[in-house]
């Protein structure tokens, strides 16, 4: 099938590449000319395992193309996916200007029955706005063409996006037209073989499903972080508690890892946007607000521990930092806990020597002018001459470090671990003090 994707960000590019991989003819459109020029040369603007390969071979096969020409993009197909950004407004609600601009382009250039698919994460009611924007353009052209708007939210995890797209848990289709539903079933049939993963529902429910999924996952994390903070104060070990509750299948082991807060482009933004939606209809979303404020506080927890250790005097102290990305297997630093920690440390007069396996370029882009930050080429360099070590991201290569070398290289024998990577006894054996999250029994 011919398919058009508006937006070559995370969701758009992964969707376009994977749909082309299974045989569709995909044209990706973006207004960013520099980005499109790079993509045409096989350069991928984001780090995502496996993506570059798929883009390269589908471009070579002629099934994946790029353009900055909206008219060409709309004329390419009768299936128009909207996967542009919905950044937060100043008050945290989702800014829909890019989504509605695409909808207007579709109305401006379509010349036959068209299905418009909302793939961006958009507040409940957006499909109606998209419909109105398309209709407005058709009216001004004096045309009465038929079209449908479908909500088809995306559930990709960064770092595992290709696998998530190729083997989805579910494919949510919010739709009020059989014709559009049939077209979407055909688009996704290659991903729907072993059992039926298509879940059909009304449009508003599909829009809310996306927010509900992310908000529930964020709730699990904030809940665990709150229990971790309690465990610390009560002399209990959250890691034992985690295993103890996870064994109940109604709770499960997934997504109950405490840490120095959740980050990324999705959870913080989506929890806030849903809370703002609630507010806008006069409903106070008490739980969502609490999830957000627990996370806000949790991002400062490592700093508080470091500051406490040095009795509030961090002037001139050097903190070796492992992990800058908001999670492993990505170079994405949006809302990363490491940023909060570094900014807290700088404010208190400390400097930072940092290393991340993938996010060094991104760190350079964001903090290139920051004199209080030294970017290090290896994790070993980051601890050389540092006072203490702090860890913000659970990259594999941090899981089994040379503890003897750590103890020899840092001036104070303390590791502040925001991701609970180690057995406290092992660090103890190497003469290291270990401050992790919620491990009161060991502290
Ligand atoms: C998240 C969702 O997991 C995806 O299902 C969703 O499609 C995506 O948002 C989106 O809306 O586009 P992502 O932001 O890539 O995916 O990252 P996650 O793997 O969910 O991690 C988010 C944050 O939670 C990270 O900072 C991670 O360190 C933290 N986390 C995760 C915890 O602190 N504890 C956990 O147990 C799990």
TrEMBL record:
* Top-level lineage group: Bacteria
Q: Which GO terms describe its molecular function?
A: NAD binding; UDP-glucose 6-dehydrogenase activity
What range(s) does the UDP-glucose/GDP-mannose dehydrogenase C-terminal domain occupy? 320-424
Q: Which GO terms describe its biological process?
A: polysaccharide biosynthetic process; UDP-glucuronate biosynthetic process
Task: List residues traversing the bilayer.
Answer: none
> What are the catalytic residues?
266 (nucleophile)
The pathway it acts in is: Nucleotide-sugar biosynthesis; UDP-alpha-D-glucuronate biosynthesis; UDP-alpha-D-glucuronate from UDP-alpha-D-glucose: step 1/1
- Leading EC class: oxidoreductase
Which InterPro entries did the record assign?
6-PGluconate_DH-like_C_sf, NAD(P)-bd_dom_sf, UDP-Glc/GDP-Man, UDP-Glc/GDP-Man_DH_C, UDP-Glc/GDP-Man_DH_C_sf, UDP-Glc/GDP-Man_DH_dimer, UDP-Glc/GDP-Man_DH_N, UDPglc_DH_bac
- Which keywords does the record carry? NAD, Oxidoreductase
User: Residues that bind NAD(+), according to the entry?
Assistant: 30, 35, 86, 121, 158, 269, 334
NCBIfam families hit by this protein: NDP-sugDHase
What PANTHER family does its record include? UDP-GLUCOSE 6-DEHYDROGENASE TUAD
Q: What is this protein called?
A: UDP-glucose 6-dehydrogenase
């Amino acid at each position: 099938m011919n398919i058009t994707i508006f937006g070559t960000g995370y969701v758009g590019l992964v969707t376009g590449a994977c749909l082309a991989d299974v045989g569709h003819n995909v044209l990706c459109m973006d207004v960013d000319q520099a980005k499109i020029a790079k993509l045409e040369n096989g350069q991928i603007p984001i780090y995502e395992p496996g993506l570059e390969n798929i883009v390269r071979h589908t471009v070579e096969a002629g099934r994946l193309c790029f353009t900055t020409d909206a008219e060409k993009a709309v004329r390419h197909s009768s299936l128009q996916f909207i996967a542009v950004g919905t950044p937060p407004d100043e008050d945290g609600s989702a800014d829909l200007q890019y989504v509605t601009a695409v909808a207007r382009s579709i109305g401006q250039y379509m010349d036959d029955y068209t299905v418009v698919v909302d793939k961006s994460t958009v507040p409940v009611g957006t499909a109606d706005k998209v419909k109105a924007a398309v209709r407005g353009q058709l009216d001004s052209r004096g045309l009465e063409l038929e079209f449908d708007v479908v909500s088809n939210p995306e559930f990709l995890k960064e770092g595992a996006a290709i696998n998530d797209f190729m083997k989805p848990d579910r494919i949510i289709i919010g739709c009020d037209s059989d014709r559009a539903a049939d077209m979407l079933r055909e688009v996704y049939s290659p991903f729907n073989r072993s059992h039926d993963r298509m879940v059909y529902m009304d449009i508003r429910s599909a829009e809310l499903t996306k927010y509900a999924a992310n908000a529930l996952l964020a709730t699990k994390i904030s809940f665990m972080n709150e229990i971790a903070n309690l465990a610390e104060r009560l002399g209990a070990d959250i890691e034992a508690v985690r295993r103890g509750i996870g064994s109940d299948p109604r709770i499960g082991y997934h997504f109950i890892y405490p840490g120095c807060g959740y980050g990324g482009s999705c959870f913080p933004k989506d929890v806030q946007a849903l809370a703002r939606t609630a507010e806008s209809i006069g409903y106070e979303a008490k739980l969502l607000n609490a999830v957000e404020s627990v996370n806000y506080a949790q991002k400062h927890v490592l700093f508080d521990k470091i500051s406490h250790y040095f009795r509030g005097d961090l002037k001139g102290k050097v903190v070796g930092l492992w992990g800058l990305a908001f999670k492993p297997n990505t170079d994405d630093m949006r809302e990363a806990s490491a940023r909060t920690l570094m900014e807290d440390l700088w404010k208190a007069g400390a400097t930072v020597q940092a290393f991340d396996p993938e996010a060094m370029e991104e760190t350079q882009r964001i903090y290139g002018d920051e004199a209080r930050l030294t970017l290090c080429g290896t994790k070993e360099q980051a601890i050389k001459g540092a006072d203490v070590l702090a860890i913000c991201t659970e990259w594999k290569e941090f899981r089994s470090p040379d503890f003897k070398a750590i103890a020899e290289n840092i001036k104070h024998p303390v590791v502040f671990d925001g991701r609970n990577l180690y057995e406290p006894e092992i660090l103890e054996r190497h003469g290291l003090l270990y401050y992790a999250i919620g491990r009161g029994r060991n502290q």
